[in-house]
Amino acid sequence: MKIVNKSKLDFYANNGFVLFEQTLPNVLLEKLKRLSNTLENKAIQAQQEGKIATQYHLSNESGEPKLFRYNDLLFEAPELIVELLATPAIIEISEGICGLGCVPMQCDLVYKYPHPHPHIAWHQGAPHPRNYAYLNVGIYLDDADIDDGCLRYLPDSQHELVDIYSLSSEYGWNIPGVLQQPAKAGDILVQDMMILHSSEPKRSDGPRRTIYLELRPLAGIEESQKQSPEWAELRKQWMAHIIQAANPEDVPQKWAEFYGEPNCDLKTLVSQIEQKWEPPIPAVWSNQNVEHPDYPTPADLR
Question: Of 263, 271, 204, whose CA–CA distance to 236 is shortest?
Fold first, then answer.
């Protein structure tokens, strides 16, 4: 059964985000949870040993270190990440929403722990020309409930940069028209990279872990000129490995022809991607500190 149908495409076109429910296989979900535990333990141990790293970021607001973000999962578990991206759901989203030439750009893991650990203020991801799709795909390893730090969207705000400072200063978390979007473990939430979104403090115990996958056509990467042609070609090779790992029945014929066969093994490719690392396009946040009685920290949590 196809998940990217007309109803989902219309919702995405009108709102800038769309949820695909229970699309991740349970066996794979458990593998990814184990990976998240391993990475957090690794980061905490490294901090205790005084090591400095840029691949991950720890939050210490509560006095107990908690992992906030671990970037470039491909470097840590390449076979598992290829397995994830080769699932029918990701292949179908890549084809149906991103289009021919789609490649993975980033694959990172974000952890959200209860307040006082970080919330996510209003922002728009990676500004870019609007001629090609640019997706941020959230793959949920844990539930994200309403009023518990799930994503907040301002629907149809993805077409241009907005005045984040003025909106958040006047309305805080509750900009007119805002929608909360809950999700369950195993769900996939696709958003346009430029949609205005946020995530208020988490109140319940335990982590909420989400893998974020950036997808974009090669033509869009070339148009923005924020990454080099060599960097883009390595992403095309990454997609070739994904197609090779996927069930042939899930791969469109045009895709097999476009991406071709990998020109090296996965270990070699990962090494090349790591050596040719280039920064992603940064997100856009408020240009000033916002003063509001209920934002960014709600009054009852102060």
Answer: 263
Q: How far is CA 283 from the centre of its chain?
A: 12
- Describe the chain by its helix, strand, coil percentages, rounded to 5: 35, 20, 40
Domain ranges of the chain: 6-219
Spatial distance between the Cα atoms of 153 and 86, rounded to a whole number of angstroms = 28
The hierarchical CATH code for the domain 6-219 is 2.60.120.620
| Phi/psi of residue 272, nearest 5 degrees | -65, -40
pLDDT along the chain (302 residues), means of 10: 93 98 97 98 92 89 92 98 98 97 98 94 97 98 97 98 98 98 98 98 96 98 97 98 96 92 97 97 96 94 90
- Give me 243's structure tokens: 């197609």
Question: Quick one: which H or E segment has residue 52?
Answer: none
Sheet holding 56-59, edge to edge: 17-20, 188-192, 135-140, 208-217, 102-112, 66-70, 56-59
CB 151 within 8 A of CB 225: no
Distance of CA 190 to the CA centre of its chain: 9
**Which residues does residue 58 pair with via DSSP β-bridges, in sequence order?**
67
pLDDT for the residue 302: 87
The pLDDT of residue 1: 67
